[in-house]
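Predict the holo structure. Ligand: G4F.
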Amino acid sequence: MDVLITGINGQDGSYLAELLLGLGHNVHGIVRRNSQSENQTSRIEHIRHKLHLYYGDLTDFASIITALKKSNAQMVFNLAAQSHVKISFEQPVYTMQATGVGFLNLAEAVRIINPAIKIFQASSSEMFGNSADGDGFQRELTPFAPVSPYGIAKLMAHQTAINYRDSYGMFVTNGIFFNHESPRRGTNFLTNKVCKTAVEISQGKTDALVLGNINTRRDWGHSKDYVKAMWALLQLDKPTDAICATGHTHAVGDVVDHVFGKLKLNREKYLRTDKRFERPTEIFSLCGDSSKLRSLTGWKPEISFEAMLDEMVDYWLKELK
Ligand code: NAP
Ligand code: G4F
């Protein structure tokens, strides 16, 4: 099968490409032009010779049409987005264009070219804002109440997906994904910032880890597990909306404690906070109930929070040696 991945050079895109190549599919991807050419394929360099890549951008309708036509894809995974919540406050308009309208461009291009193409949309737990059920979990029917430009843009895309399903009978599935990480995570996201900086401290290269709010809680899983859920969702007979999460929540401080503990670093000595890393509005606690996904597909996470952080620290110990 020919499969197209937008955001193929991102954290999830690179793991999904590996998974699909392993299953024997022809993998196509959209990459953005960058003035340093190695940046545009930095996470997929090791498999680049097996991929079919097209320059494009979700804000450029013509480039999506070209990629759909050239790839002849029967499935599209929309993983491209301006995906950083804090940066979405600094670039709200671009975030709406790329993360919100970008999905509309893709859905419309598929409708025009071949409405039988199946679409996976990477929806986000950020759409819930501070909304939760009485027991503290977020579920598919928990009301959405986003508190960031990114969350609002993702909700636009999410509702557009449902509208294209209802209006045109298209196969468009929303995976409502909670935080997921790996050594390939951008180093300006919390987990990889902590892992990389802690290793630098342990090697005497820097003397502080400076964070924003350390009391917020997230449901953190591993990207490698979550791309398996994306694939499983598109194998179902019908499109749906489903949460992908571990069901366990940890505070930012727990990430620091685990990583500092592994490297034998003293939290009081090296951890500082600075308002510069806080957001204008914040989500205080995320914890997802993925019962629906688990019963529909049999998916379950295999990599624990601790094993994931250990892998990330080991990656940086090797990389920064
Ligand atoms: P990521 O590492 O930031 O990757 C995003 C990818 O999108 C990158 O390859 C980036 O290109 C590309 N991109 C950005 N703007 C684009 C545009 N206008 N047109 C085309 N491509 C564009 O994100 P991720 O962690 O892999 O996440 C994948 C998707 O899942 C995203 O949509 C994200 O919002 C969503 N999501 C992620 C999480 C999570 O915790 N990771 C949770 C819920 C939902 P470059 O490589 O050139 O930068
Ligand atoms: O790692 P984060 O930046 O991830 P955030 O904001 O939860 O968003 C991620 O998960 C979403 C799913 O829920 C995705 F849709 C989205 O694309 C992205 O992948 O921050 C995690 C927590 C936040 O509460 C943040 O305020 O860590 C807190 N934090 C504290 N200090 C920090 C920092 N976050 C970052 N990035 N940098 C800090 O210095």
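The first strand starts at residue 2 and ends at 6. The chain has two domains: 2-181+222-247+291-297, 190-216+249-286+304-319.
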